[in-house]
Design brief:
The structure is a single chain. It is built from 2 helices and no strands. It is mainly alpha-helical and 67 residues long. The radius of gyration is 26 Å and the shape is elongated.
């Protein structure tokens, strides 16, 4: 077996590994989405939580003018 054949075999192995890893990642991503429950409701709740935290942070940083 020549060097060219060795490189070609190694290249094919890497391509197969990359395909397998991509497929595994795709399957894990699908499982993760299924376990999240209601997508739009979850996004809305996350947005409300983010807004609340931003409001609290802004209130904390704003100086108190009630002297």
């Amino acid at each position: 077996m020549g060097m060219k054949d060795q490189f070609q075999d190694k290249s094919e192995q890497w391509q197969q590994q990359a395909k397998q890893k991509a497929e595994q990642a795709k399957q894990q991503g699908q499982r993760g989405r299924q376990g999240q429950g209601q997508g739009p409701d979850r996004d809305r709740m996350r947005d409300e939580e983010t807004e609340r935290l931003q409001r609290e942070e802004q209130e904390r940083l704003d100086p108190d003018y009630d002297m």
